[in-house]
Amino acid sequence: MRAAAERTVTPERLDHLAPDHPLAIASRRDLQRVHRAMRSVAILKHAVSSLNAATPPRRILELGAGDGSLLLRLARAMQPHWGEMDVVLLDRHNLLSSAARQAFNELRWHVTFMSMDALEWAKSASTERYDLCVTTLFLHHFEGADLARLLAGIATRTDAFIACEPRRSTLALMGSRMIGVLGANEVTREDGVKSVLAGFNGLELTEMWSKVPGNWRTYEYGAWPFTHCFRAARSNVRSAAASHEH
């Protein structure tokens, strides 16, 4: 049951189901439970704090945002340290519910949904800038030239980037084969294994990121129990530590 030494990217069933298909609706609910089992919010919060930015971000982009529920949980976790925010959620389908939008509004997070393919966004001539871009369980869908193109698009539009992906490890593969205990349906069970086999380990994302424009501070690491993280910040962005020195 050892994870493959090389990444194996194969199409996942959820990506090819209509958003309103009963299996897709159930699988998105499953993913919320999976995120809790993976400690995704705690891992994201730690990654954001580790950026050590002198000031909180004011514009955030989430790629592969889905229904926005994970970012909403992060928004709540970051209160009261983060205040008013402009947020763009990017996904092919707008799955943001009115209840979630209202919850963001109550936190003074002003949300815009961009219904667009991420690769088309990366290739576009958009000049929109963001203080922070985050993505979770999304980069592993891409490989080769597509992944390079996506990372380059991110690098030209943001000052900091955080990605939390499946960790390609024996432990994570074992976990993916056991997500049925969370009540996950057949789509989530199948896609969970595919996600781990397409995941990352070592310094794979750092190597890819080294080809993007700009000067960056990067860090890539495993986060217990099943997550692989990458973060990058522009070298000219002041850290909190540096701001206290002046």
Please give a structural write-up:
- This protein is an alpha/beta fold.
- It has a single domain (34-244), classed as 3-Layer(aba) Sandwich (Rossmann fold), CATH 3.40.50.
- It has ten helices and seven strands.
- It has a seven-stranded mixed sheet.
- Helix 2 (40-50) packs across helix 3.
- The longest helix is centred in the first third of the chain and has 17 residues, at 22-38.
Query: For the terminal residues, how far apart are their CA atoms?
Result: 53 Å
CATH architecture: 3-Layer(aba) Sandwich
Mean of residue pLDDT?
93
**Assembly of the depicted chains:** single chain
The tally of helices reads 10
Which stretches of 5+ consecutive residues score pLDDT under 50? 241-246
Q: Which secondary-structure class do the elements indicate? A: alpha/beta
CATH domain class name: Alpha Beta
CATH superfamily membership, which one? Vaccinia Virus protein VP39
Shape: globular
Q: Largest beta sheet, briefly?
A: 7 strands, mixed
* Sheet with most strands: strand arrangement: 3-2-1-4-5-7-6
Give me the CATH fold name: Rossmann fold
User: How many domains, in number, for the residues?
Assistant: 1
Order of helices and strands: HHEHEHEHEHEHHHEEH
User: Into which percent range does the helicity of residues fall?
Assistant: 25-40%
Number of strands: 7
Q: Whole-number radius of gyration? A: 17 Å
Quote the beta fraction.
15-25%
